[in-house]
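Loading example: each entry is read as two labelled lines plus one structure line.
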Amino acid sequence: MNTMTDAAAVAAAQTDAKSFRDGLFSHGILIDTGENGLYGRSQVFESVVDGLNAAITHLGADQDPEFLRFPPAMRRTDFEDSEYLKSFPNLAGTIHSFCGNDGDHVRLLRCLDDAMKESDDDRSEEWMKYQKPTRLTLTPAACYPIYPVIARRGPAPANGHTVDVLSYCFRHEPSIDPGRMQMFRQREYVRIGSPEQVMAFRQMWIERGSLLIDLLRLPVEVDLANDPFFGRGGKIVADSQRAQALKFELLIPVALEDSKTACLSFNYHMDHFGAIWKLACEDGSVAHTGCVGFGMERITLALFRHHGFDVHAWPDDVRGLLWGDTKARIDHGLAGAAT
Amino acid sequence: MNTMTDAAAVAAAQTDAKSFRDGLFSHGILIDTGENGLYGRSQVFESVVDGLNAAITHLGADQDPEFLRFPPAMRRTDFEDSEYLKSFPNLAGTIHSFCGNDGDHVRLLRCLDDAMKESDDDRSEEWMKYQKPTRLTLTPAACYPIYPVIARRGPAPANGHTVDVLSYCFRHEPSIDPGRMQMFRQREYVRIGSPEQVMAFRQMWIERGSLLIDLLRLPVEVDLANDPFFGRGGKIVADSQRAQALKFELLIPVALEDSKTACLSFNYHMDHFGAIWKLACEDGSVAHTGCVGFGMERITLALFRHHGFDVHAWPDDVRGLLWGDTKARIDHGLAGAAT
């Protein structure tokens, strides 16, 4: 193991990431909050996100998805049921609140006053011992809140069910790489049905997702992938996920020169969520599920990386796709792909 | 003190709120998650929110606001600095995460397994002792993240500065009243400048906010108000806030028959945020701040309450304002108000 080279590679990646992030800050595209992975968004950044959302809507319109939006939190018992904590305990966020009385409040404020005598980075978090768990957690992926809600309706129709969701998600992984945020938006199409329906859906979205990225004039590379499972046992689970080809990612160079960032992912959950939340098919079998996830911030950052910080100088067809005749360009792309 | 009557009034309000919420669920406008104050949004609900946002944008366009968007979280040290915990400790949400090793993970999962043997409502939260505070908290009001960011830029220009923000906010107050959510969106215009600039801004927005609600054919009633300060000392602070006329609210009957819900608020913070974050005016004095906040879910719910669950049956001019010639109708309203 060549640790010198590894260390040098990490340092180089940090430099790449920092330099790209500095560019985003200095051009006013993202706004520095002082915290890695937590950024304000400018109007131009949000206009790219809006344009992408419109394109993704047209790309999925013929699937007649059900439109659902959830706040960035979910019920804690649903989150516990999801088994997310088995795989990614380090990434999850739970919400805590003060539930005490006047006396506790006085003590909390005294703790906080003491903490605030120190510099920001040295502040004690002692006051937070007064925070108690609430019944909510942050949403770890946009599709999580939908399964228990859909399950309660009864079996999926014979031709399956498709849902369109978008939400801010939280992952506790502070990073200097702007492509790795703690709070970011995922847009997803989710399919609930038979294994054949879900596999066909995933294949279609690998093609359509690649089409979108191609129309945005970004490099397309789809590869087998695995989730970052926690701990010593994580590698075994990751290997198994790869062996079963459950996850593919569309990778684009974003902040780093030598490694690529997953901007879309195409996931087959098999009956994992179906079994947990008793999602059923019309014939009574356990429903399988799958989803395509669009990392809205990551695709947006990829556009800034490859086309420059000035959106007015982006290629005309990219500007047209985002803010012009979006529907016509998507329809034309879909027609071309079908021939 | 007539506690019987009080109890009867509370019971009646609960019945009102539950019946309105049941209507929203049964018409598929909001989606039940099983948790009070946490709801999914349907396409029709979101289309009303989108229409309102477009109208609010036109209503403020001549103010040339800076557009800023933040994720629904802020830096914990900024949140601590804000003094929110002095006034509303019970409403704030902090974000916690697992930061342990493999062994801790095993112990966490063992706790969780035990908890999950119980029914949802009886589950132990013992596993959450492994959750540690992160450096982020949930955003309590949409404008909070902007002050430290704006302060770092240096003094406000001589004619002040106006910011347009929108964010999901968290308040820990589970309620059966759909007008009181734990996760909801606030759109705000924020003014930073001299006391005269901020007072003039607030007066203008009391008028413009009333105009918007009038154009939506909802009843307009603006009243002096106070925030729900915590604890025994809270009443004194609330009385002082009223005596200084720092807060006005636009109240509309929403879920409850006999009491009204604050759908917009018009706030003068004096130099509270300016002093905390060292926001300065061009002449070196501490900047004053104020904001108008639009409760996006509350205004949307008021529309459903007053115009019915079927948006196709809403008055033509309300539909036109939301989804038709929004700009022309707002401009016409502003011109009428100016004469």
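Chain A has a mean pLDDT of 95.
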